[in-house]
Amino acid sequence: MNILFMGPPGAGKGTQAEYIVNEFHIPHISTGDAFRAAMSQGTPMGVEAKGYVDKGLLVPDEITNGIVRERLAQPDCNAGFLLDGFPRTLQQAESLDGMMTELEKKIDVVFNLVVDRSLLLARLTGRRICKSCGATYHVMFNPPQHEGVCDKCSGELYQRSDDTEEKVGTRLDEYSSKTAPLLDYYRNKGVLKEVNGEQDIQLVTAEISSILRGLGE
User: Fold this and answer.
1) Domains in the chain, CATH or no CATH each
2) Average pLDDT over residues 184-195
3) How many whole angstroms separate alpha carbon 132 and alpha carbon 121?
4) Candidates 50, 105, 171, 187; catalytic one
5) Over 48-77, what HEC string results?
6) Is position 127 annotated as part of the catalytic site?
7) Do the record's keywords include Transferase (predicted)?
8) If you compute the radius of gyration of the chain from its CA atoms, what whole number of angstroms results?
9) In angstroms, how far apart are the furthest CA atoms of the chain?
10) What's the pTM value of the predicted model, to 2 decimals?
11) For this structure, is 88 an active site residue?
């Protein structure tokens, strides 16, 4: 089962990806992990990427595509994979199609977790972190016993600078503008499955599981 996972920041992709990986015994491939592995292993594409990273430059698409292809060609992907964070553009999606043809694979399903913007803002701006021990809380979903105070060490809780409403809103706008064409691309291919990410976690998992088991029949 070859799966693409899409959804905005805060949609809960990480939780659902963990379930899929454990239930279906396939590797979870993120572009960040693939980059780090390629560079540490000194693969041809990893060496090229490191040259750009060391200079503080953006890695060109052709190298990003090459690193993803190297990863998808590894033996642990023979039974399937969960790809997260790629593609991000139509050009990358078209390149992925080419990789799949070369590797004699195909994308079976593309999941998109759908969550209202206001809820995403609440999820992403509610995180609080202890300055002393690093414990993480959420004002809505996992609040401390006393506001602003860590339960574990009584340290002061703070909000990260990139968790502010303004910065989170910018991230969501950027994601939406870049992703809309991709959703149409996969919708037209008939492989897009949109899942209500506002449900309880267990219900989201159950819906994803039902779709995957239906595909496997």
Assistant:
1) 2-26+79-115+173-215 (3.40.50.300)
2) 96
3) 26
4) 171
5) HHHHHHHCCCCCCHHHHHHHHHHHHCCHHH
6) yes
7) yes
8) 19
9) 57
10) 0.84
11) yes
- Contact (CB, 8 A) for 3 and 20: yes
**Residue of 152, 160, 178, 189 with catalytic role:** 160
pLDDT digits (tens, 9 = 90+) for 73-128: 999 999 999 999 899 889 999 999 999 999 999 999 999 999 999 999 999 999 99
Residue 87 neighbours by CB distance under 10 Å: 24
Task: Quote the pLDDT of residue 145.
Answer: 96
Q: Which of 26-30, 32-36, 80-84, 123-127 has the lowest mean pLDDT?
A: 32-36
Q: Which of 69, 71, 123, 127 does the annotation list as catalytic?
A: 127
Nearest alpha-carbon partner for 154 in 135, 126, 139: 135
| Catalytic residue (choose from 88, 117, 167, 193) | 88
Q: Catalytic: 13? A: yes
Confidence of residue 216 (pLDDT cuts 50, 70, 90): low
